[in-house]
Amino acid sequence: MNSINVFLSETSLQHVAAIHPPSIGGPEKVKSFILLVLQGALLTNERRMQRKMTDTDECGLCGNDNETLEHALRDCVLANLVWKGVFGL
User: Fold this and answer.
1) How many whole angstroms separate alpha carbon 66 and alpha carbon 10?
2) What is the DSSP string of 24-80?
3) Per-position pLDDT tens, the chain of length 89
4) Are 13 and 5 in contact (CB under 8 A)?
5) Cα gap 56→49, rounded to integer Å
6) What is the pLDDT at residue 12?
7) Handedness of CA 65, 67, 73, 78 (dihedral sign)
8) H/E segment holding residue 87
9) How far apart are CA 89 and CA 82, in angstroms?
């Protein structure tokens, strides 16, 4: 869960980590996505390249040279548009 520390304070992270998976609301796909993020297991292109599943670690949305978890969720220009549209952030 180290990579999620970029987004949450240690106290907040402890609260989120204490959530029992069935208590997370929403569709099953959303629950699975949240759990993958919390576990730092979201398969980004950086991780896919390390596993030799792709030839590039480039972000498929914006073309950034390195699609990390932080980039995919926070730094990608197009991901930011999604957050703003969904949550009004």
Assistant:
1) 26
2) S-S-HHHHHHHHHHHTT----HHHHHHTTS-S----TTT--S---HHIIIII-HHHH
3) 445 555 556 666 666 666 555 555 678 887 888 888 888 888 999 999 999 999 999 999 999 889 999 999 889 999 888 888 877 75
4) yes
5) 6
6) 62
7) positive
8) helix 77-87
9) 9
